[in-house]
């Protein structure tokens, strides 16, 4: 794929970029390695100051940054600005709490025959971040803020369709005062990733993206015995039980499915509804989809913009068309929109069976798969009948049902009577083929630390 900004609203190529040469990548890794030698010795106070300065710049430039992201991948301006401000919040969070998260952790010295014993968290070194296009800033900042606060340095291989966002990230960190080489964007194709993972100057890698991409990076890193964190796809269930506030559940369900034009790993994708409230929920859910405004993402009235790439739109269309051919029922939508750009109608589809590809695939776009179940056991069984395990939602006011959903849904996170989202204050990550490791909170900042045991006689 060419490294280029292509406006998904029109399909027009805005700007193309040259890939770095092997020599340029080598020079960047050398800068990173040399930077780490000194950067690891900086204090938490110094790093926190740079993080706060980055947050200040993001807040001041939010409108400009939002316009850039909207042009590159088609999210609405409101969503893009909210993402920018969320990134600023994450930088401030780690500036405020990072030192405490990495403070020496005392152990029971008497129990181990020592005068003093503790665990110390120390940075690992140069970490490669491979990031996707759907949240061009936030996906990267989830790694950057904690990693830099911990004393690591990073190099970024971003998605090829968001090069301006990728370059902005390294630029804003530089302007905030971080040392030269502390974080560098590498405009490269996927074919160069393996060599970077294998490079001895790179000690670990983190990837957010597709399952095939995660497998590839993890396989190389495993061969080199290097630590990885993977956040891959998701096909999150959204379960509605009879005790739920059906109107609130249906309204939230619409947002949960079409957020970011439906292109979010933690967007609800499978709507599993108890038969007693199925008709009521479905009517409200479909009405909510009918009211959505699809159009230019720079228009304040727009709810859903285009898919980020033409291939993404084509893949989504193939999933829906295949399910319909095999007997699924489209309740609303179901077609690409005949206009320039990569638009697809917000779609609700029912009568899906396990033999359809849509049953097991991650539909990355504004397509909701609707299922009817007879009881909580069937709801949990269907929710877990997926290779993914990223997030999940359950709507019920019954305490016993809530406990069962929390205990039995196979996922990295469960939201009760609310929409799955991410916060710096909550751990983020999945199980099964949604990946491993955690981002955000203290768990995220410690992922790329050497947890060193200290014993003193």
UniProtKB/TrEMBL annotation:
<dbReference type="InterPro" id="IPR044148">
    <property type="entry name" value="ALDH_GabD1-like"/>
</dbReference>
<protein>
    <submittedName>
        <fullName>Aldehyde Dehydrogenase</fullName>
    </submittedName>
</protein>
<dbReference type="Pfam" id="PF00171">
    <property type="entry name" value="Aldedh"/>
</dbReference>
<comment type="similarity">
    <text>Belongs to the aldehyde dehydrogenase family.</text>
</comment>
<dbReference type="InterPro" id="IPR047110">
    <property type="entry name" value="GABD/Sad-like"/>
</dbReference>
<dbReference type="InterPro" id="IPR016161">
    <property type="entry name" value="Ald_DH/histidinol_DH"/>
</dbReference>
<dbReference type="InterPro" id="IPR016162">
    <property type="entry name" value="Ald_DH_N"/>
</dbReference>
<keyword id="KW-0560">Oxidoreductase</keyword>
<keyword id="KW-0816">Tricarboxylic acid cycle</keyword>
<dbReference type="InterPro" id="IPR015590">
    <property type="entry name" value="Aldehyde_DH_dom"/>
</dbReference>
<dbReference type="InterPro" id="IPR016160">
    <property type="entry name" value="Ald_DH_CS_CYS"/>
</dbReference>
<dbReference type="GO" id="GO:0004777">
    <property type="term" value="F:succinate-semialdehyde dehydrogenase (NAD+) activity"/>
</dbReference>
<dbReference type="GO" id="GO:0004030">
    <property type="term" value="F:aldehyde dehydrogenase [NAD(P)+] activity"/>
</dbReference>
<keyword id="KW-0521">NADP</keyword>
<dbReference type="InterPro" id="IPR016163">
    <property type="entry name" value="Ald_DH_C"/>
</dbReference>
<dbReference type="GO" id="GO:0006099">
    <property type="term" value="P:tricarboxylic acid cycle"/>
</dbReference>
<feature type="domain" description="Aldehyde dehydrogenase">
    <location>
        <begin position="3"/>
        <end position="454"/>
    </location>
</feature>
């Amino acid at each position: 794929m060419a490294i280029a900004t292509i406006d998904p609203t029109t399909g027009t190529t805005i700007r193309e970029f040259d890939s770095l040469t092997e020599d340029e990548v080598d020079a960047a890794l050398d800068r990173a390695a040399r930077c780490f030698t000194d950067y690891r010795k900086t204090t938490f106070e110094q790093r926190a100051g740079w993080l706060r300065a980055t947050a200040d710049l993001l807040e001041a430039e939010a409108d400009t940054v939002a316009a850039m992201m909207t042009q590159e991948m088609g999210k609405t301006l409101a969503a893009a600005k909210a993402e920018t401000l969320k990134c600023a919040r994450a930088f401030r969070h780690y500036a405020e709490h990072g030192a405490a998260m990495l403070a020496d952790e005392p152990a029971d010295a008497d129990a181990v025959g020592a005068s003093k014993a503790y665990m110390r968290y120390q940075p690992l070194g140069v970490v490669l971040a491979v990031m996707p296009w759907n949240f061009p800033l936030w996906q990267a900042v989830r790694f950057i803020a904690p990693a830099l606060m911990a004393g690591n340095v990073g190099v970024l291989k971003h998605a090829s369709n968001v090069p301006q966002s990728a370059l902005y990230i390294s630029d804003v960190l530089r302007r905030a005062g971080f040392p030269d080489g502390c974080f560098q964007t590498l405009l490269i194709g996927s074919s160069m990733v393996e060599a970077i993972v294998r490079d001895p100057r790179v000690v670990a890698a983190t990837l957010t993206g597709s399952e095939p991409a995660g497998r590839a990076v993890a396989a190389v890193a495993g061969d080199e015995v290097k630590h990885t964190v993977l956040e891959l796809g998701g096909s999150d269930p959204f379960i509605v039980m009879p005790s739920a506030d059906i109107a609130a559940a249906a309204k939230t369900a619409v947002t949960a499915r079409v957020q970011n034009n439906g292109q979010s790993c933690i967007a609800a994708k499978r709507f599993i509804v108890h038969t007693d409230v199925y008709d009521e929920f479905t009517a409200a859910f479909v009405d909510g989809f009918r009211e959505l405004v699809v159009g230019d993402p720079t228009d304040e009235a727009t709810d859903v913009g285009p898919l980020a790439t033409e291939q993404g739109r084509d893949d989504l269309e193939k999933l829906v068309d295949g399910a319909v051919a095999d007997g699924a029922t489209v309740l609303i939508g179901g077609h690409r929109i005949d206009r320039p750009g990569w638009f697809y109608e917000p779609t609700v589809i029912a009568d899906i069976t396990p033999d359809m590809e849509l049953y097991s695939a991650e539909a990355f776009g504004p397509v909701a798969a609707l299922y009817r179940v007879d009881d909580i056991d069937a709801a949990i069984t269907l929710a877990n009948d997926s290779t993914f395990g990223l997030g999940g939602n359950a709507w019920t006011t019954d305490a016993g049902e809530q406990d069962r959903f929390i205990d039995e849904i196979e996922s990295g996170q469960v939201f009760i009577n609310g929409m799955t989202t991410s916060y710096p204050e909550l751990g983020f990550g999945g199980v099964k083929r949604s990946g491993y490791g955690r981002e955000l909170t203290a768990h995220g900042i410690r992922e790329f630390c050497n947890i060193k045991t200290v014993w003193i006689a």
